[in-house]
Structure formats: C-alpha cells, structure tokens
Design brief:
- It contains four helices and six strands; from the N terminus they run E-E-E-E-H-E-H-H-E-H.
- By secondary structure, it is of the alpha+beta class.
- A three-stranded antiparallel β-sheet has the order 5-1-6.
- Strand 3 (22-27) and strand 4 form a beta hairpin.
- It is globular, with a radius of gyration of 13 Å.
C-alpha cells in the first residue's frame, strides 16, 4: 500500500491521448485501455516526474480546493488501482526494473 512518503511516477510503456480535457491510456504491457476524467488526468499529468504521495495531495488540494484528508481518502484507492494495473510505479523500484 502507498503511504504519504511513497514516491510514485508514471510507467513508461503507456500510450496516451488527450480527449478534450480527459485522458485515454493504453497499456503496452497488458493491452488494456483506461479513461481518466478531470481529476485522474490532473494526477496523471503530475506524475510525469517522480513525486511523493504527500506532494501530489498538496498539489491537488491547491488545484481543486479540497481538504488534504478528503483528497487522500479519494485518491488512495485510485492510486492503488493504478499501481495494480502497472500504470504507475514506485520510483525506487523503477530503477531496479529497467
């Protein structure tokens, strides 16, 4: 499970397309397609470079005017799903997997 100090980043083998503010993703590894809405797209864009979960929450709170507690509760399951689907990875594991 991810915690506030986990450093996460997008996985390299993802093809993306802008869909009028939303984002469509296609995983090269598993051939699956994913659709991200406004908040998911914001998260995806922030994870272009490694970032701690705490820093991500801070950025999202500023952008969407939500409390840190609410933001964390809302994004933890989403980040967990993204990690399980290998759309994101832990940055410290990234270097050992390449």
């Amino acid at each position: 499970m991810l915690n506030s100090s986990s450093i996460i980043v997008r996985t390299n083998k993802i093809i993306t397309a802008d869909m009028d503010g939303d984002t469509a993703l296609m995983s090269v590894n598993n051939g699956a397609y994913y659709g991200l809405g406004k908040v998911g797209t914001a998260i995806w864009n922030e994870l272009a470079a490694p970032l701690t979960v705490a820093a991500l929450i801070e950025k999202l709170c500023q952008r969407f005017a939500v409390s840190a507690t609410q933001c964390e509760q809302d994004i933890q399951p989403f980040l967990g799903d993204m990690l399980a689907e290998k759309l994101i990875e832990l940055a410290n594991e990234k270097s050992s997997n390449n």
